[in-house]
Amino acid sequence: MTGPRCLVTGATGAVGPAVVRRIAREGASIVALARHAPPAGLLPDNVEIATHDLADAAVAPLAREADVIVHLAATLHVNNPGADLRTAYERTNVDATRRLVDAARPSARFVFFGTIDVYGPTPAGTTATEDTPPHTRSLYGETKLRAEPFVLAHPGGTVLRLAAVYGPRVKANYARLARAIARGRYVGVGPGTNRRTVVFEEDVADAAWRVANARALPSRIYNLTDGHPHTVDDIVAAIAAALGKRPPRLRLPAPLVKSAAWMGDGAARLVGRRFPVTPAMVDKLQEHIAVSGERLMRELRFEPAWDLTRGWQAAIAAMTIGEKMP
């Protein structure tokens, strides 16, 4: 008996390979869609590679042939994106999602990777759920949120709002955090008790397969997390332990850092430059982003298998660390 035919977009990104490997273990026939051919060994040998841009006409027939579509491809979050990036966000996160949904058969399962960025920061002591009104502040979150109604209008559409994903191919903020800790350059700002929500890539892959394989699942939104929020200090300690280091102890008061940022930013502007730390950055470091993944755990009996300790041990073990860390 052959498994379902699956189309996975964004298959060579930070999370895509883990998702493809998980689905492949279930015997599915997979078409991995990416803009460029993957490096040797990144994906299983029996995966069919389709190198297309999401806007290519060849993508719609691939979607029509699929029993399951797992849509990961996106223009990801960047800090302070320029106006020229809006077109890229619209084209990839909104327009491409709409076209994929339009091309999908009504009987197909459509799994869309959204983001908890749509909630924005959460007030201290509170935890956002799927019923919390969105309050996104970024182009990334805005465009991912605008794509969700297309998915939910599909009979087999499910939105997985992902927490911050980490793993061996981690990028952006958590890659910088791991590098700083590895090199002994991490300095805490503020008390480190503000809460953040994360999830390890293998749990993302497992949840994607569970949703894709679910029977008679209504079109619905689910937050995907590792089970509960963690303080920034807990995350830093887990990374340090995985690196074989003691948790960094150096810490600066947030008001002091913010004052220095104000002065540095003002001085830099006088000479036409940008100071590396802005007051807005200091504020973001203090934010709570606490989101519940209980609905997915309850309704699909999904149990995250990777806690902070085990997840970061696996991530760091597969990364190039120390002075050679990228």
Keywords:
326 residues, seven-stranded parallel β-sheet, two-stranded parallel sheet, 11 helices, alpha/beta, 13 strands, Rossmann fold
CATH superfamily of the domain at 5-170 and 192-227 and 288-306: NAD(P)-binding Rossmann-like Domain
Helix residue percentage: 25-40%
Order of helices and strands: EHEEHEHEHEEHEEEHEEHEHHHH
What is the CA-CA span between the terminal residues? 44 Å
Largest sheet: 7 strands, parallel
What class would the helix/strand composition place it in?
alpha/beta
CATH architecture of the domain at 5-170 and 192-227 and 288-306: 3-Layer(aba) Sandwich
Alpha plus pi helix count: 11
DSSP summary, beta strand count: 13
Strand content: 15-25%
Low-confidence stretches at least 5 residues in length (pLDDT < 50)?
321-326
How is the quaternary structure best described? single chain
Radius of gyration: 20 Å
Q: Which CATH top level class of the domain at 5-170 and 192-227 and 288-306 fits? A: Alpha Beta
Strands ordered across the widest β-sheet:
3-2-1-4-5-6-11
Mean pLDDT, nearest integer? 91
